[in-house]
Every structure is written in structure tokens, then in C-alpha cells.
Amino acid sequence: MASPLLILFSLPLAVVLYHLFYRLRYRIPPGPRPWPVVGNLYDVKPVRFRCFAEWAQLFGPTFSVWFGSTLNVIVSSSELAKEVLKEKDGQLADRHRSRSAVKLSRDGKDLIWADYGPHYVKVRKVCTVVLFSPKRLELLRPIREDEITVMVESIYQDSAASGKSVVIKKYLASMAFHNITRLVFGKRFVNSEGEVDKQGQEFKAIAINGLKLGASLAVSEHIPWLRWMFPLDEDAFTQHGVRMERLTREIMQEHTLARQKTGGAKQHFFDALLTLKDEYDLSEDTIIALLWDMIAAGMDTPAISVEWAMAELVRNPRVQEKVQEELDRVIGHERIMTELDIPNLPYLQCVVKESLRLHPPTPLMLPHRSNADVKIGGYDIPKGSNVHVNVWAIARDPKSWKDPLEFRPERFLEEDVDIKGHDFRLLPFGAGRRVCPGAQLGIDLATSMIGHLLHHFRWTPPAGVRAEDIDMGENPGTVTYMRTPVEAVPTPRLPADLYKRVAVVDI
């Protein structure tokens, strides 16, 4: 009986001594006082980036938070972001992988969860030089534009006659789903009745299950000596892996047979990776992991980004009308927009930038893990610590932005600000070695979606709802879903024949 009691009472003492050791050996950034064992896990509010922005006001732009026994350092200024993502990038380019991330990424054989090293450099080169090259993105443009016209047609059919309001997220999510499946797999998972087919249903189920498994052990991951109380459900992860592999190999076999029949490869990512398998020495594990990386990144973030932009545009009719004036002047009412029009629509581009400034889809980015002892902002960051860049707080910093809480796209006409990792005041896609390789695709897709929605429709709040009453709160999570999906009334602006789908065959 004495032994368990001794262990029980010695654990808090061991944790206190552990923190004392860190404080004496390193000059760690200030932060909220950690509790024994759990650290600050129960001090952090659900919407973490807002909580961290509040704590930055108390402790300064560099502060520390303990998740169990893991030190996390949060930086909240553009100068410190530059230090983390550019000047000290080499020491801070690794990833912290939880037990679930290890399983889902096949132990870092993908891109998102891989540590920085030869494997990461190789697969990133495949992404930047091949998958997301300007040539391939242009070749795949008709698919993106096809799916946008499907979205517009669906909104028109559901609301034109009745004038009723629609939940915008429903249409954005459907468009993002079909777009990413066609870009990745080269197929639209739809049967002859226009419904999602068996493969598509399995695809969605795997994606949803992956999110559940990824979040299932969140608290226990930070307290290694208590993991025996929260064992990993090996069977669940094994079954998930089997489902992923079975579906991917089924589609892989379809593509292999199609290539044998036609003698050539198509432009979508799956065929591209199969073609490059030998040249880049890509294992099947890496191909499967990369494909699901693309799906994870491309299924949610476009819809999230555009929903936030549309919420702001419904709340700000002045800005909406100004975009529509530009669209009418450049495109007119006799044709629909294409991505080729984007360079001639500077104000629309400013709207996209301003929405991404106020509502970055991943407000804390994914954490960077230090692979060596390093100094940030004059403080010591020990090897193995996680560093988070609060891009949400940086983009609302009054030291960098005039009237930072105001939705005012004109600020980007007054100053041209890069959003692909070169200006550290605005980092919706990250920066440095781990900058998002699909940033340009994300920008083009969001700009095109918003442009079509505003060119085809005028958007107003539902009856009885004031624009200023639209809920602009966020749900907790790594990505920022709106707490309440935005609902609005779309009123057609163009001739009826311009609301029909412009279908294309997969390329």
C-alpha cells in the first residue's frame, strides 16, 4: 500500500523539480504559472489563438505555456515571426508528432508531419516543382472553374424562385469536396442520379474518422507518464489505415489500367505521383500519405476562407458593392468570370487579402519543434520545445496595421503586401521551409469562388437579421470554422443562362 501512495505523492514533486531545473538551466520566456502534472492545459481557453493573444498582453510577445511536460513558446509579433520562420528556421523546422499523428502520417512519411531532412526536402520538391507548378495549375484550371459553376447553379436552383436564404457553407463544402477529389484522384464521386457514390461516401467517412482519431488523445499526449491510463486504440488506427489503403489502392488500380489502355497519364496529382514514383524514389506509403495530405489541406481550408470572406461582405455592403462594380466593369453581364480575369480585378484581390488577414484558416499554424537549443527574442528555447506563431494576433497588431479590427480592403491598394510568406505581418500560408506549397492554388481558388459568388448574386442578411448581428465567433480547433454558419439571401444579378454549369471532362 505504501508504494502506490509514495508514487502518487512523488509525482507532483518530480514535476516541480523538473520545472525548477528548466528555470535554472534556461532563461525561458515568462508565462502563466503551470500546475503540477498538467501544466497550463486547463488554463487555456477553448479558442486558443484568442487566449494566447490575451496572454501576450500580460506576458509580452514571447511567452511560454506548458502542455503537461512539454514546453510551448508562443510568439505574437512580426519581428519574432521573422526570427522563427526565417532567421532561426533551420533549428525550428521539425514537427511534434503525437501518437495519432505518427499513425496517420505513417510515422512522418508524408509532408505535413515529416521532420525537416532529406525525406521532407524530396517530397516538398515533388509538390513545388511538379504538383503545384504553374503549368499544372493552369492545366487543372478548367476543373476548378467547372466545380464553381456547379456551386453557382445549385445556389440559383435552391433560392432564385423563392428568394429564401441559404447556408453558404453547404455549397462551399460541396464545391471543395468535389474539387479536391478531382484534383487529387481525377474523378468526381457522383453516380448517375447526381448523388455521392459508394467510393465518395467511403472517402468522406475516412476523412471524418481521421479527424476523430487525431483528436481522441489530445490531453493524454502531453503527459507521457500518464499514457498508460489512455492506451492507443491500435485496432481503430489499424482499421483506419486499412480503409485508407484499400480505397487508395482501388483508385490506383483504376488509374493503372486506364494508363495502360490509353498509353498516357492525366494531369491530376495521383497520376503525377505514379509517374514520378521511380524518378523520386517514392514508396507507396509516401504516395498514399501525400495524397491524403492534399485532401486534408484542400477539403476544409478553401471553404473556411471563403465563408469568412462572405460573412464580412454581407456585413459590409459598401465593400460588396465596390467589388461588384469592378466585376461589372471588367467582365460585364454577358459572360462569367474565369481565373484569367483575376489580374484585372485588383479590388477583389484586396478583399481576399483582407479576409485572410482577419480570419487566417490556421491562426496558430502547425507548431514548429526545435531540433536544437535556440534563442528567440532573447529567451532560451530548449531542444524539443514547440513554437507557435500566432498569425491571427500578428495580423491584428495595431503596431503593424492601422485600424486593425476594421474590414477595409483598401489598405492593400495603399500598400502592396505579400501573403505568401515574404511579409511577416501577414502569414495565412506560413513562411520559410514549411510554407504551404499550395498557397497559389489556395489564393486563386478563393479569389475565383468569391468573384463568382459576387458576380452572380447580391448577398443580404436574412429577413429580421441585422448585418451587425451576424456571429463572427470561431469554433475551437486547429482551423477556424465559423461558430455559426453564415446564412444570407442571394439575389441573382445576371441573365438566367449564365447560371448553368459549364461542365468539363476530367483532364
From TrEMBL:
Q: Where is the signal peptide?
A: none
Gene3D superfamilies per the UniProt record, alphabetical: Cytochrome P450
Q: Which UniProt keywords apply?
A: Heme, Iron, Membrane, Metal-binding, Monooxygenase, Oxidoreductase, Transmembrane, Transmembrane helix
Q: Where are the transmembrane segments?
A: 6-24
Asked if the keyword Iron belongs to this entry, the reply reads: yes
Q: How is this protein situated with respect to the membrane?
A: Single-pass membrane protein
Where does the UniProt annotation locate this protein? Membrane
Give any GO molecular function from the UniProt entry: iron ion binding
The protein's superkingdom reads: Eukaryota
Is Iron one of the keywords UniProt gives this record? yes
The residues that hold heme are: C436
Sorted alphabetically, the Gene Ontology cellular component annotations on this record are: membrane
Tell me which cofactor or cofactors this protein depends on: heme
The family classification in the record reads: Belongs to the cytochrome P450 family.
What's this protein's name? Putative cytochrome P450
Organism (species):
Plectranthus scutellarioides (Coleus)
